């Protein structure tokens, strides 16, 4: 009876502490709203960065001492898994971040939907150790989580949340997982049990500052796109269709294009990256595709690929480099002039797509082809024409 009495009082106390933390965070966010990304003046450079930045590991949007928002990256360590899988691990602040490349033979549906399975993979990285006498013993599993839910951040990305109880440490492990074509991104923190609600509040805000591109083989993309309940809302306007050896097509509310193997091979090991970026659209910041890059295959030394980066007119006086790049694209200056060039052991060629007949456009795209080796202008121009043949820019 006494135990139940104490337990009941503790639950009441914890609920009051949680309510107080909720109110404190709400007040803080309200007070600081004008100085936080993407609303503060220091956000402009990141919101207008062209071309988009690409990182193999998730970054966090962070504010420098000068008040400018940029991307913070972690030093990473890789742990190899079976069947081409791996775990990249890094630390930013109080948070451990992971990128899991799902092993090829691991069922995609189970991986995306089983929180225990994903955490057991992370345990292989030696994430948690338990002291037993004089020995440190690697923990191989925390079992099933005590709670799971889904959280949608401000950019309409769906994070899978899970909390595990770790009784021998009187602690909780909290994870927020973002599914990606090749696996997932995980943000993790272990905290004293009484502080787990505070950790959840932190993560609910921190996920708004995660910067991540979406990449994988075409075979992985096929499986990922079937998980419609896990896709960010940005994918509601994106349609990706391909028939190996025959046809590839991409369309969205902004852009559409298609091609056949005459331009580039279309196979299960073809590798596609949708480079998402934060950028202004109709006066408000959005998170959407800023570049589509497709490689002939996923070999680390593969050079053959196509790309369709997006460019938009930067605000006046923001940054000379941004203004210069936009002017080059707008005026079709080299390298955006359809003339082939030698670049890093391959031939590359670009052209501009999306000129608007009624005045100067605010958005343009560049069609890019890169082919390993040395090739003449007519060969490269033929490649470029094949990419641009069915390309349509839907925004101006």
Task: Note down, in words, how this protein is organized.
This protein is an alpha+beta fold. It has helices at 2-32, 44-47, 108-113, 115-123, 196-206, 218-225, 320-330, 377-388, and strands at residues 59-63, 69-72, 76-80, 86-92, 95-101, 129-132, 135-138, 147-152, 158-166, 171-180, 183-192, 210-211, 214-217, 239-243, 247-251, 255-259, 271-281, 284-295, 305-312, 341-343, 346-353, 363-372, 392-393. It contains eight helices and 23 strands. The longest helix is centred in the first third of the chain and has 31 residues, at 2-32. It is globular.
List the helices and strands and how they pair.
Blueprint: H1 2-32, H2 44-47, E1 59-63, E2 69-72, E3 76-80, E4 86-92, E5 95-101, H3 108-113, H4 115-123, E6 129-132, E7 135-138, E8 147-152, E9 158-166, E10 171-180, E11 183-192, H5 196-206, E12 210-211, E13 214-217, H6 218-225, E14 239-243, E15 247-251, E16 255-259, E17 271-281, E18 284-295, E19 305-312, H7 320-330, E20 341-343, E21 346-353, E22 363-372, H8 377-388, E23 392-393
Antiparallel strand pairs: 1-2, 1-12, 3-4, 4-5, 5-11, 6-7, 8-9, 9-10, 10-11, 13-17, 14-15, 15-16, 16-23, 17-18, 18-19, 19-22, 20-21, 21-22
What is the share of helical residues?
10-25%
Order of neighbouring strands in the sheet with most strands:
3-4-5-11-10-9-8
Shape: globular
Structural class: alpha+beta
Radius of gyration: 24 Å
Largest sheet: 7 strands, antiparallel
- Average pLDDT rating: 89
Query: How much beta, percentage-wise?
Result: 35-45%
Low-confidence runs of at least 5 consecutive residues: none
Number of helices: 8
């Amino acid at each position: 009876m006494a135990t139940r009495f104490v337990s009941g009082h503790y639950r009441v106390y914890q609920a009051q502490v949680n309510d107080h933390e909720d109110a404190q965070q709400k007040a803080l966010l309200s007070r600081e709203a004008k100085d936080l990304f993407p609303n503060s003046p220091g956000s402009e450079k990141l919101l207008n960065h062209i071309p988009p930045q690409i990182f193999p590991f998730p970054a966090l949007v962070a504010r420098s001492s000068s008040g400018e928002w940029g991307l913070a990256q972690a030093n990473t360590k890789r742990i190899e898994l079976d069947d081409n899988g791996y775990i990249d691990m890094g630390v930013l602040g109080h948070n451990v971040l992971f990128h899991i490349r799902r092993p090829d033979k691991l069922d995609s549906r189970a991986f995306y939907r089983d929180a225990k399975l994903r955490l057991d993979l992370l345990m292989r990285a030696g994430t948690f150790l338990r002291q037993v006498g004089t020995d440190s013993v690697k923990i191989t599993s925390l079992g099933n989580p005590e709670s799971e839910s889904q959280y949608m951040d401000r950019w309409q990305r769906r994070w899978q949340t899970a909390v595990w109880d770790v009784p021998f440490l009187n602690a909780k492990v909290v994870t927020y997982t973002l599914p990606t074509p090749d696996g997932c991104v995980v943000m993790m923190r272990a905290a004293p049990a009484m502080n787990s609600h505070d950790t959840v509040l932190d993560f609910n805000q921190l996920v708004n500052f995660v910067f991540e591109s979406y990449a994988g083989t075409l075979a992985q993309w096929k499986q990922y796109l079937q998980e419609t309940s896990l896709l960010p809302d940005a994918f509601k306007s994106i349609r990706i269709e391909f028939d190996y050896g025959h046809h590839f097509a991409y369309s969205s509310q902004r852009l559409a294009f298609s091609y056949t193997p005459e331009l580039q091979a279309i196979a299960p090991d073809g590798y596609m990256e949708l480079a998402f970026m934060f950028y202004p659209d109709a006066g408000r910041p959005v998170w959407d595709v800023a570049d589509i890059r497709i490689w002939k295959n996923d070999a680390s030394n593969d050079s053959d690929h196509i790309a369709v980066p997006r460019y938009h007119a930067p605000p006046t006086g923001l940054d000379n480099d941004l203004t210069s790049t936009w002017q080059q694209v707008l005026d079709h200056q080299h390298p955006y002039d359809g003339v082939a060039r030698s670049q890093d052991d391959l031939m590359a060629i670009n052209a501009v797509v999306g000129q608007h007949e009624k005045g100067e456009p605010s958005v343009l795209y560049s069609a890019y082809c890169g082919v390993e080796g040395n090739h003449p202008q007519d060969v490269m121009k033929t490649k470029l024409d094949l990419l641009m043949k069915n390309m349509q820019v839907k925004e101006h």
